[in-house]
């Protein structure tokens, strides 16, 4: 955990709104032997497993994850550096740099939540680790966090598949989903679930890759342009959106994975790409719509809406990306 950051609060508040991912009925014995309260539901008799001391509320019949996976301590299919202090994580940060927009976007997200509620509750989807730049969300005492992921960690309170979030409708003030949507089978279904569990004025913050290679092995499925990302969140009004990092970072990704394609392993490819770390600094002087066309990834900050944007608006949205980025680049060049 980053210095000073809080673990998600383990309060009973969220437990009043948890439900069966199969039939949406209430659950029983959540803390000891979780099961569905509906006698006609499969999970009434079969119950749900527990991993790392946390309930695993997944409908395995419709999920990529198997019940057998959660016989292990935390249920993770991959080895993970939860603290991000390993040598590999340090080399990754040196080569690719820190997320240049997440911290300021997180501060804005937190401030908007404070304006809406004295004590906002936020669902973190993919909260097995603290995302880059998300420290303020974890440090904010005015926010009650509920961390979920497909594996148990010190930062989660339960395990869930985001395709079927095990919560009642309209219970969260905000949802934070950072570097997750590329790893789900059906991103549109996950975004629909986010919309469902948010209150009418609820906020969402998402970051999703565009020009990045496969980095989660068998659990890596999709990439989005900025227009595609906007369409994914079409039932949300946009507050702000843009690249998380530019073509320089994308090129460093490509150098690393090009070396892997030539036979270099994971560790060697990291070392091969390190001398090219300086390329990412060129992102600071690039501007215009072409930045979005070659960006490493995108973010979206929006508010739940009951109306979706019209398909006819999408060409104009693409043109507006260029205008906004050109204005930003012009401001930077004058400093």
Number of contiguous helices: 10
How would you classify the quaternary structure? single chain
Question: What is the level 1 CATH name of the largest domain?
Answer: Alpha Beta
The biggest beta sheet is recorded as:
9 strands, mixed
Structural class: alpha/beta
Global shape = globular
Mean residue pLDDT: 89
The tally of strands reads: 11
Radius of gyration over alpha carbons? Answer: 20 Å
Distance between the termini: 36 Å
Strand order of the largest sheet: 3-4-7-6-5-8-9-11-10
CATH H-level superfamily of the largest domain: Vaccinia Virus protein VP39
Order of helical and strand elements: EEHEEHHEHEEEHEHEHHHEH
The name CATH uses for the topology of the largest domain is: Rossmann fold
Any guess at the CATH architecture of the largest domain? 3-Layer(aba) Sandwich
Low-pLDDT segments? 324-335
Task: Describe the structure in your own words.
This protein is an alpha/beta fold and 335 residues long. It folds into two domains: 14-71, no CATH class; 87-334, Vaccinia Virus protein VP39 (Rossmann fold), CATH 3.40.50.150. It contains ten helices and eleven strands. It has a nine-stranded mixed β-sheet with strand order 3-4-7-6-5-8-9-11-10, sandwiched between helices. Strands 1-2 form a two-stranded antiparallel ribbon. Helix 2 (87-96) runs parallel beside helix 8 and helix 7 (247-261) packs across helix 8 (266-273). It is globular, with a radius of gyration of 20 Å.
Summarize the topology.
Blueprint: E1 27-28, E2 35-36, H1 42-45, E3 50-51, E4 54-57, H2 87-96, H3 102-116, E5 120-125, H4 135-139, E6 143-149, E7 158-160, E8 172-178, H5 187-197, E9 198-209, H6 226-232, E10 236-245, H7 247-261, H8 266-273, H9 289-293, E11 297-304, H10 314-334
Parallel strand pairs: 4-7, 5-6, 5-8, 6-7, 8-9
Antiparallel strand pairs: 1-2, 3-4, 9-11, 10-11
Helix pairs in contact: 2-8, 7-8
């Amino acid at each position: 955990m980053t210095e000073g950051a809080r673990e998600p609060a383990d309060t009973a508040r969220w437990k009043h709104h948890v439900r069966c991912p199969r039939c949406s009925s209430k659950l029983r014995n959540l803390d000891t032997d979780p099961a569905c309260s509906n006698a006609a539901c499969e999970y009434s008799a079969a119950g749900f497993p527990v991993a790392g001391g946390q309930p695993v509320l997944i409908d395995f019949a419709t999920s990529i994850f198997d019940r057998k996976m959660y016989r292990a301590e935390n249920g993770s299919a991959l080895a993970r550096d939860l603290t991000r202090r390993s040598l590999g994580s340090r080399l990754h940060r040196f080569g690719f740099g820190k997320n240049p927009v997440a911290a300021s976007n997180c501060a804005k997200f937190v401030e908007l939540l404070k304006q809406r509620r004295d004590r906002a509750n936020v669902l973190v989807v993919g909260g097995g680790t603290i995302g880059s730049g998300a420290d303020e969300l974890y440090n904010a005492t005015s926010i009650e966090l509920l961390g979920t992921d497909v594996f148990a960690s010190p930062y989660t309170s339960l395990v869930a598949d985001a395709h079927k979030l095990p919560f009642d409708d309209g219970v969260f003030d905000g949802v934070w989903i950072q570097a997750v949507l590329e790893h789900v089978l059906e991103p549109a279904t996950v975004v629909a679930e986010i919309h469902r569990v948010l209150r009418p004025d609820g906020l969402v913050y998402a970051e999703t890759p565009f020009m990045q290679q496969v980095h989660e092995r068998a659990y890596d499925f999709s990439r989005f342009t900025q227009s595609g990302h906007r369409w994914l969140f079409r039932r949300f009004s946009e507050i702000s959106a843009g690249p998380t990092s530019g073509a320089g970072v994308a090129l460093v990704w490509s150098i690393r994975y090009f070396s892997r394609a030539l036979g270099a392993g994971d560790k060697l490819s990291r070392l091969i790409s390190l001398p090219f770390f300086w390329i990412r600094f060129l992102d600071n002087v690039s501007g215009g719509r072409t930045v979005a066309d070659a960006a490493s990834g995108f973010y979206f900050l929006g508010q739940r809406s009951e109306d979706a944007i019209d398909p006819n608006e999408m060409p104009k949205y693409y043109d507006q990306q260029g205008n906004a980025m050109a204005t930003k680049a012009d401001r930077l060049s004058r400093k």
